User: Fold this.
Amino acid sequence: MSAPSLTPTTADPARHSPPHRTPVRPPAGRFARTVRRNLTAHGFLIGAVVCFAVFSWYPMVREFLLAFQKTEGGETTWVGLDNLTTVYHDPAFWQAWRNTLLFTVLALLLGFVVPFAVAIVINEFQHGQGYLRLLVYLPVMLPPVASVLLFKYLYDPGYGLLNDLLTTLHLPEQQWLQDPDLSMLSIVIASTWMNMGGAALIYLAALQGIPGELYEAAELDGAGLFRKIWHVTIPQTRLILSLMLLMQIIATMQVFVEPFLLTGGAGPEGSTTTVVYLIYQYAFNFNNYGAAAALGLLLLVLLAGFSAAYVKLSRAEDA
Assistant:
């Protein structure tokens, strides 16, 4: 029997070479789902962009162009600053701005303070907050026209409930919408009741996020209700308060529905003529779309400047 050979044999390269791995491909179904998901996301995004372009950006660009154009006999010509000059020399121009600023100030005194106070009161209730939130938000769910007509009935000098209440209390009746001194205040009261529900719920959500330990520490220091609101509640909700202040100023500067339906727009002696109502008059009563666009451009520049100043001051405070 022969001895085994000690000569090394040549190794089989096929045995020791790394195996060839075929790349794993995702199943066709998973790939198709990924494509569909991305297409759906891009479809929604494109739809949103198209909506903004058609209903927001295009009207803004069109308004900017109309402010420097004039259309007569179907022909459009560039007139430069003539539309701005026409608006500036209108006697109703400065009256509309004064009324708009007056409405803004009164709306901030009522519409900014009242919802915050209502939110604080609701936050103190341990039970029934859901019903109170529904009760506060109910006016927002009503159509604005219905709410305005309701207040028009309340303000009626002949059979209005407010004058009936004053008569019951042996107080003199008031011409709420016919008196130039009361017409704007009456509109502010109606607007506050109509729109305070959303702001109150936002404030309530912010209040419920404040840690209870802060109020307990304030009570240990002997702080009363108003001191707790001033030193705890307001500082903890400063961001929400400042944001709501900006949004409310922008909204009140564009008031139109309430004075248009309650006092016909201009009101007694022009006491409720606002900037947006004057824009409406230029466009639909005078058929002067260039002047309407010019006045709208002034309002846009004013609100944009205010918003930019607010953002700059907010960043400076946070720095």
Remarks:
- Residues 28-66 form the longest helix (39 residues).
